[in-house]
Amino acid sequence: MTQRTAETLSAALYRDPAVYEEERKLVFAKSWILFAHESQLSKPGAYVASRMAGFALLAVKGEDGAVRAFHNVCRHRAGPLVDDGAGDCGNALLCRYHGWRYALDGRLASARDFGPASDFDPRDFGLIPLQCAMWHGFVFVNMDRNASDFEQTIAPLEKKASAMALERFTRVRHSEHLLKCNWKTYVENYLEGYHIPVLHPALNASLGSTYGVEIDPPVQFYHATPREGSAVAGLWAWQWPCLGVNVYADGVLMERMWPVDHGHTKLDYLFLFAEDADEASIRRAVAASEVTTAEDILICEAVQQNLNAGVYEKGRLSPKHEAGVAWFQTQIRRALDR
User: How many angstroms separate the CA atoms of 246 and 264, rounded?
Assistant: First the structure.
């Protein structure tokens, strides 16, 4: 029995700045986002900071050993507390604008030279917290105080990865790529293997003829038979709204597909290897990933140019190859009430 085809999203949803502003609030501000790995937060005062979908976020290890996450925004006049990247802030977070000082647990410790004010209580001006959860050493954050339960969200991944001893991967490598395309354009490319024989000759040579997707919301799992001797065996998955998960025998690649604005996406790659991995092997693994990424960047930017041109409006999705894309687009419609 033949299947009906799903209609794609309208091209306008990939180029309209107003749609992106909706997605910031209705998708990214309400979702669990992979933000860091605990090995980047090895001692009190160690922090990781980054901007995702326009939100400036940071995670920091407290004096008590707990990892907490906050908006990287001073409560005085919105100054930043730390620069993007990883670093050490010592025993306090200090606003880089006017010097307000916050304890590592987010409490306002000092409003520098503020002056007496009867209606100002420092207890009311702590940093704006995020929900924070740990999974096999990975730090997830959520801006929504009424967010869905993290354990429920991560359950599909946990079922597949629980026996993979992810904790053994603690040696971090990090890379970034800035793409001139909407975040959905890149995510949808990740969610299907239909293009692999055409676009990725090296990757295609490592795979057998079978390829399939299993959808266990909010996660999609991909199944491809590796050819003998190839290094692609492991776990290949994606979690709503923007996380690619790749677990191999000798390492992990977490791909964060973070929007910068309506027309730009940052691929923020977190590679992890075992502590005893040799540097040559690490360089080879990262280089192999970069080859596929470069091929994806070229096609996604070309697709975005066509989406922007106003000729293409809607298409149809292959019921054989693009079920994952169809599921993703359904979630976008629901989030935006389209």
Answer: 23
Give the whole-angstrom CA distance, residue 310 versus residue 313.
Answer: 7
Position 250, amino acid: D
Do residues 98 and 171 share a domain?
A: no
Q: Can you give the CATH number for the domain in which 46 is found?
A: 2.102.10.10
Give the model's confidence band at 270: pLDDT under 50 very low, under 70 low, under 90 confident, else very high. very high
- Asked whether residue 251 falls in the same domain as residue 182, the answer is yes
- In this structure, what DSSP letter does residue 78 have? -
Amino acid identity at 223: H
Q: Which two tokens stand for residue 181?
A: 């395309």
Q: How confident is the model at residue 233 (pLDDT cuts 50, 70, 90)?
A: low
DSSP 193: -
Residue 55 lies in domain: 33-147
106 and 175, same domain (yes or no):
no
pTM of this structure? 0.93
Residues 6 or more apart whose CB falls under 8 angstroms from that of 64 comprise 105
**CB 45 within 8 Å of CB 89:** yes
The predicted model gives 25-54 an average pLDDT of 97
218: preceding bond cis by omega (within 30 degrees):
yes
Say which range, 7-11, 18-22, 226-230, has the weakest mean pLDDT.
226-230
C-alpha to C-alpha distance for 137 and 167, rounded to whole angstroms: 6
Q: Do residues 18 and 66 share a domain?
A: no
Asked whether 108 and 99 are in contact (CB, 8 A), the reply is: no
pLDDT digits 0-9 by tens, 131-189: 999 999 999 999 999 988 999 999 999 999 988 889 999 999 999 999 999 999 999 99
Residues present in the chain in total: 338
